[in-house]
Amino acid sequence: MALLQHCSVSATSAVRLSFSSSAPPRASLSLHPEKKSHSRRMICRAMVQEAAAQGIPSVYAREMERLSAKESLILAFNDAGGFEALVTGKITDLQKIDVNERITTLERLNPTPRPTTSPYLEGRWSFEWFGSNTPGSLAARVIFERFPSSFVSLSSMDIVIKDASTRATANVKLLNMIENKVILTSKLTVEGPLRMKEEYLEGMLESPTVIEEAVPEQLRGLLGQATTTLQQLPEPVKDTLANGLRIPLGGSYQRFFMISYLDDEILIVRDTLGVPEVLTRVETSSSSSVVENVEYNS
């Protein structure tokens, strides 16, 4: 779509192009922007001001403002050090308040009035930002309080939302040569146009996977011995190790949250304390469809 491709065209020509298409304008979401972020934000802001001054319909001026706010938020994530800095606690208070300011700016421009029943909600999402009391921060805290950062790292966290259920995955790496996954499944209940309830059903610790090429030469002999020992274990034990450790939760833990922003690329939710989580889309769900006439649970 020609409209607002990283704010590289003038406001007048961008809007002229938008009238020639029936599809809404769309920006390409990038987690690795160019360095001249300040200049690009100034250009986007100037475009919005110019559009309003020239009497361009407000719907397009608002859309341009929304796309600018999205890019500004992603740039703030990168300026703060991204996911790695977030989970290791290396983000400063100034960076935190800057990100939160941009989150509230984008929430004000939410294009989806009923996000809990929107087809945009389903799909695979990657965590970019979470607060101190969210499930993401709790997982990071458990890991880093028990192991030094030189021993373990949390490389990424994502969640798949489909058919009123979720599957959240934390990808953990030990000594940069052993990969492991911690998985949490839950059930979602629609409580209103913005509010949902999440009930946790099961936690699972998958069997670790050794990255053989990352194993030092002096340890490869021990790795071979360990592999041989595992192969000699009884079948029930091997099956347990292969299938991972499962912890049934039975819905004993739950939380409520509100979706404050949703489009085809960004999801923002807030918990009961108002702490935000920001996720970016990795892929859509093939079965996503519009949901109508939903009865909310009270």
Structure description:
The protein is an alpha+beta fold. The protein has two domains: about 60-110; about 115-280, Lipocalin. The protein has helices spanning about 10-20, 35-55, 60-80, 80-90, 95-105, 135-145, 220-230, 235-245; strands at about 125-130, 150-160, 165-175, 180-190, 195-205, 210, 245-260, 265-270, 275-285. Strands 1-2-3-4-5-7-8-9 form an eight-stranded antiparallel barrel, surrounded by four helices. The longest helix has 22 residues, at about 60-80. It is globular and about 75 Å long. Its main location: plastid. It holds the Pfam family PAP_fibrillin. One of its GO terms (cellular component) is chloroplast.
Write the layout of secondary structure elements.
Blueprint lengths: L10 H8 L18 H17 L4 H22 L2 H7 L4 H15 L15 E8 L4 H12 L5 E11 L2 E10 L3 E13 L4 E11 L3 E2 L9 H12 L3 H9 L1 E18 L3 E6 L4 E9 L14
Antiparallel strand pairs: 1-2, 1-9, 2-3, 3-4, 4-5, 4-6, 5-7, 7-8, 8-9
Helix pairs in contact: 2-3, 3-5
